[in-house]
Design a protein that fits this description.
Oligomer: single chain
Distance between the termini: 55 Å
Number of strands: 12
CATH class: Mainly Beta
Order of helices and strands: HEEEEEEEEEEEEH
Strand content: 35-45%
Helix content: 10-25%
Bound molecules: manganese (II) ion
Number of domains: 1
Largest sheet: 8 strands, antiparallel
Length: 155
C-alpha cells in the first residue's frame, strides 16, 4: 500500500508539472520537410485531408521550428489557420505582424499577400485548411528576408 501511495504521488507531481505553459503537446506527427524553395528554415508538413469529391480544400499540420517561415504568398480562395501549438507570427503585406499562439484562428482572405511561421525563439504548429480555385491553392512569391523577419519579431 505504501508503495502504491508513493507511485500515486509521483504521478500527481508529473501531472502538475504539465501546467507549465511551455510544455508542448503533440497532436499530429511532424511529417516531412517542406521545400526550401518556398520556406525559410525548417518547416514540416503532415497531410491530413486531401481534396476529394466533397471537399474543395486540403488540410495539413505544418510545424515551423524557431525562425522558420513561409515565403510571401497568396491563396486564390483564401486559407484558414488553426494554431495548435507554440507561438508564431502572421503578417499581411503593408501591415504590422501579429503574434499567433495555440488556440488562435486566422481567416486569410483571397489574394491577400502574407506569410506565416514560427517566431525567432519559439516553434509554432498550425493546421492549414486551404481552398482550391481550379487546381491552384497558392501562388508563391519572394522569401521573407531576414530584415523583414527581424522587424516582424519586434512587434
Ligand atoms: Mn498562407
Amino acid at each position: 500500500m505504501k508503495k502504491l501511495i508513493i507511485i500515486f504521488t509521483v504521478l500527481l507531481t508529473a501531472c502538475n508539472s504539465n501546467t507549465n505553459t511551455m510544455i508542448s503537446t503533440k497532436i499530429f506527427p511532424k511529417g516531412e520537410p517542406l521545400s526550401k524553395d518556398w520556406f525559410t528554415g525548417n518547416a514540416f508538413l503532415e497531410p491530413l485531408i486531401a481534396r476529394d469529391k466533397n471537399n474543395e480544400f486540403s488540410a495539413g499540420s505544418v510545424t515551423f521550428e524557431p525562425g522558420a517561415r513561409t515565403n510571401w504568398h497568396t491563396h486564390p480562395k483564401g486559407q484558414v489557420l488553426l494554431v495548435i501549438d507554440g507561438q508564431g507570427l502572421y503578417q499581411e503585406k503593408g501591415k504590422a505582424s501579429q503574434l499567433i499562439k495555440k488556440g488562435d484562428v486566422v481567416n486569410i482572405p483571397e489574394d491577400v499577400e502574407h506569410w506565416h511561421g514560427a517566431a525567432a525563439e519559439t516553434k509554432m504548429v498550425h493546421i492549414a485548411i486551404t481552398n482550391f480555385k481550379d487546381d491552384t491553392q497558392v501562388t508563391w512569391l519572394n522569401p521573407v528576408t531576414d530584415e523583414e523577419y527581424k522587424s516582424a519579431n519586434k512587434n
